[in-house]
Design brief:
disordered C terminus, elongated, disordered N terminus, about 140 residues, 7 helices, mainly alpha, about 55% helix
Length: about 140
């Protein structure tokens, strides 16, 4: 049996989610999971219920719930509808999700910009410490 087939049958997950650098039992975050969590935080920050946001976006509350839980891979049209209903541009939402995914992935592999970059010999930030993290949204 190939390694890919073995991973799929033994873990129930796609093999690209399995990290091969010694962090067994952990999985890298998926785009849909980070997107869903971000949408849920934005919705709650605005004080909207699942039903209110779903109605505004023109989708069912059940489907929105599955998106927020990272269970569904929504189309770009669905993402645009939900982001529009939240009053956030698709480009801004995409950038926020990408930033969060990058941070989650770096954390997953044990990378710390504060120590791995700032203390590297010859790195321009070695004498000044880590750069501040800038978010495009006030919602963390």
């Amino acid at each position: 049996m190939s390694e890919r087939a073995w991973d799929q049958t033994t873990s129930g997950q796609a093999p690209w989610r399995q990290h091969r650098c010694g962090t067994h039992g952990r999985q890298e975050p998926l785009w849909r999971e980070v997107l869903g969590a971000r949408l849920r935080r934005l919705r709650k920050h605005q004080g909207l219920t699942l039903h209110e946001l779903a109605a505004e976006a023109g989708i069912s509350p059940q489907y929105l719930s599955e998106i927020e839980r990272g269970r569904k891979e929504p189309s770009s049209e669905m993402i645009a509808a939900v982001s529009g209903a939240l009053g956030i541009g698709l480009v801004d939402l995409t950038a926020e999700v990408a930033d969060e995914l990058r941070r989650d992935t770096l954390s997953f592999i044990g990378f710390s910009p504060a120590t791995d970059f700032a203390t590297a010999p010859g790195h321009p930030g070695a004498d000044v410490g880590p750069a501040p993290v800038v978010s495009l949204s006030a919602v963390a």
